[in-house]
Amino acid sequence: MSIFEELESEVRAYSRSFPVVFETASGAFLRDEGGREYLDFLCGAGSMNYGHNHPVLRQALTDYLNGDGIVQGLDLRSSARRDFLETFHELILRPRELEYRLQFPGPTGANAVEAALKLARKVTGRSGIVAFTGAFHGVTAGALEVTAHNHYRQSSTLTNDIAFFPYDGFAGMDDTIAFAERMIEDATSGVGLPAAVIVETIQGEGGVVVASDRWLQDLERLCRRHGCLLIVDDIQAGCGRTGAFFSFEQSGITPDMVTLAKSLSGYGLPLSLLLLRPELDVWEAGEHNGTFRANNPAIVTATATLKEFWENDSFARTVLEKGARLRDGLLQIRKEFPGQIVLIRGRGLFFGAVCADGLLARSISATAFERGLIVETSGRDGSVIKFLPPLNIDVSELDRALAIFQESVAVALQSGPGLTKR
Ligand SMILES: *Cc1c(COP(=O)(O)O)cnc(C)c1O
Question: Whose Cα sits closest to atom 11 in ligand 1?
Answer without folding.
Answer: 137
